[in-house]
Specification:
- This protein is mainly alpha-helical.
- The protein has 3 domains: 83 residues, Orthogonal Bundle (Fumarase C, Chain B, domain 1), CATH 1.10.275; 234 residues, Fumarase/aspartase (Central domain) (Fumarase C, Chain A, domain 2); 86 residues, Fumarase/aspartase (C-terminal domain) (Ribonucleotide Reductase Protein R1, domain 1), CATH 1.10.40.
- The chain contains 19 helices and 4 strands.
- Helix 8 packs parallel to helix 19.
- The two termini are 50 Å apart.
């Protein structure tokens, strides 16, 4: 296997996202560092903390085209962090020694955390757009299949009838929760960091908060109330959101995989030449995308767990746990974006076999409607007695390999309370969808209002 999946030509499609890779590229990252240094200088120039000509000069020179990236990489390997090596180069660019005002009152983590916030904001917006596109595909399918009957399954066994539309509605409602949280997540968690050496901004005397406010305005980021150098809950909240989203996609992947089983065959991923093919079994059509959704769910779960380790930090600057974010967060965003794109593709090309769903409803010889009969009978003999009567009838039907309805018609306890026509009606799955159609209509109406 390759040392890193994203760097592999063979496996990069599995969990790779070129859009997220671009956001987290070295070029973009260094550009953000420079953007922040320029904004800091501009803010301090406005406030009269540094000369305006210095602010203008730094702003003009803070361009990645002026930076020797190889030299920056070499020095970063020695220093351990990229900001000092970057300032070494940037401070030499303005004329008349004006570069001495670069990075005035800031610390390395201020710049790096703020750059992270900019990257995370862009990534969340990108993922949010894909989630919305996925939910649009779900809505179309829900409307079309509101009354498409299929077996519901509990503990991997048929339970009662449901509709495909209702199954998909459960996905939609959960994904909508993620969508509703994006803007508040960006506002709350993608904020600037500006605390100076130990969080107090003492380097700027009593002007620190003015600078922080102006810097936030310059960058279009929210301003925190308090420095958060070693309080990493904001970024952990983002990682948890990503893991939760992928958890939902993993559940969807499991459902699709199970519904694609040969013995079930109710739903399948797209049929295209070679898609999901086997090297040895020509008949196979494997649930490739669904398998990746399941894997993405597991990967993000563990990366999110890793992110929780970043919260255990020492004093006012971490001695290692902060660094975990540099590895975990880009991977979380990359895997999540790749997964949501795959999920959208699955549902835009989903094959649905309605006839097979109806055939599968019948494989229990009517026992999928046992609860329907029990609840009707409960009106006359009480729920527990009705449960015992129908339970025994199910056992007889299994033993005799006959339809449950036939067993029930031979039971006087049942037939004295339920007419034959009523019994026939109780075995019609379309009569036992409960409130599912109403929940679909109500949710979609409220969603579109």
């Amino acid at each position: 296997m390759p040392s890193l999946i994203p760097s592999s030509q063979l496996f990069s499609e599995s969990f790779e996202s070129t859009a997220i890779r671009d956001i987290f590229s070295d070029t973009k990252l260094v550009s953000h560092y420079l953007e922040i240094e320029a904004a800091l200088a501009k803010a301090q120039g406005k406030l009269g903390i540094i000369p305006t000509e210095a602010a203008d000069a730094i702003h003009h020179c803070a361009n990645i085209n002026h930076i020797d990236l190889q030299k920056l990489a070499n020095r970063t390997a020695i220093v351990g962090y990229p900001i000092l090596p970057l300032i070494e180069q940037l401070s030499l660019l303005p004329s008349n020694n004006l570069g001495q005002y670069c990075h005035w009152g800031a610390t390395t983590q201020d710049i790096m955390d703020t750059a992270d916030a900019i990257q995370y904001r862009a990534s969340l917006k990108l993922i949010g757009n894909e989630v919305r596109a996925f939910t649009d595909a779900l809505v179309n399918l829900i409307k079309k299949h509101k009354l498409t009957i299929m077996p519901a399954r509990t503990h991997l066994q048929q339970s009662t009838p449901t509709s495909l539309g209702f199954m998909l509605l459960c996905y939609l409602e959960t994904l909508d929760q993620n969508i509703c949280e994006i803007e508040s997540l960006i506002e709350e968690c993608c904020c600037i960091q500006f605390g100076g050496a130990s969080g107090t901004i003492a380097s700027l005397g009593n002007r620190g908060l003015e600078v922080r406010t102006e810097l936030a305005k310059e960058l279009g980021l929210s301003e925190p109330h308090v420095t958060w150098h070693t309080m990493r809950g904001r970024f952990v909240k983002i990682s948890a959101w990503l893991a939760r989203l992928c958890g939902t996609l993993g559940k969807i992947g499991i459902d699709i995989s199970l519904l694609m089983q040969t013995e079930v065959g109710e739903i399948s991923e797209k049929f295209t030449e070679g898609y999901g093919a086997s090297s040895t079994m020509p008949q196979k059509h494997n649930p490739i995308a669904s398998e990746h959704l399941i894997a993405a769910s597991n990967i993000t779960q563990h990366l999110n767990s890793l992110m929780y380790s970043t919260m255990r930090q020492d004093h006012q600057r971490a001695s290692g746990n902060w660094h975990i974010e540099w590895y975990a967060m880009p991977q979380l965003f990359m895997v999540t974006h790749s997964a949501i794109v795959r999920a959208k593709d699955v549902f835009l090309n989903l094959n649905i076999d309605e006839q097979r769903m109806l055939e599968n409803i019948e494989i229990t010889h009517g026992q999928i409607m046992a609860e329907s009969v029990m609840m009707k009978l409960s009106q006359f003999v009480g729920r527990q007695v009705a449960h015992d009567i129908v339970y025994e009838a199910c056992n007889i039907a299994r033993k005799e390999k006959c339809h449950l309805q036939n067993v029930l018609t031979r039971n006087d306890q049942i037939m004295q309370h339920i007419s034959f026509d009523e019994l026939i009606s109780l075995f019609k799955p379309e009569h036992y969808l409960g409130s599912a159609p109403v929940m679909i209509e109500k949710y979609l109406d409220e969603r579109e209002a």
